[in-house]
C-alpha cells in the first residue's frame, strides 16, 4: 500500500513537472519595446516627420526585423528611412502567418 502511494505521488510529480516544462517552452518571440506599435491593419505608420529606422513584425510565434526596405519570404516593407512605413503580406500557411502586430522604431535626435 505504501509503495503504491509512493509510485502514485512520484507519477503525479513527474506529470506536473513535464506540464510545467512544456508550458514554459512555447518558443514565442516578442518585439522589443519601440516608439509605436499597431495591432491591426492596415499595416502602416507615419510620424510627424522623424524617420522610421526599423520595424519588428510579429506573426505567429515569430518576429521579423527590417532595417531597410525589402521583401522576406512572407512580408514586404516600404518606407524605412522616411516618416511613413507600409507593410504587406502574411497569410495563414505554415510558413507565412498573419501579422498580429508591428513595432516601429524612430530615429532619435
Walkthrough of the structure:
With 109 residues, this protein is of the alpha+beta class. It contains one helix and eight strands. The protein has one helix at residues 2-24, and strands spanning 36-38, 44-46, 52-59, 62-66, 70-71, 75-78, 84-89, 99-106. The strands form two sheets. It has a four-stranded antiparallel beta sheet, with no helix packed on it. The chain has a four-stranded antiparallel beta sheet with strand order 2-7-6-5, with no helix packed on it. Strand 3 and strand 4 form a beta hairpin. It is globular. The relative contact order is 0.22. Mean pLDDT is 81; it is low at 2-26.
Please give a handful of descriptors for the protein shown.
disordered N terminus, globular, four-stranded antiparallel sheet, alpha+beta, 109 residues, 36% strand
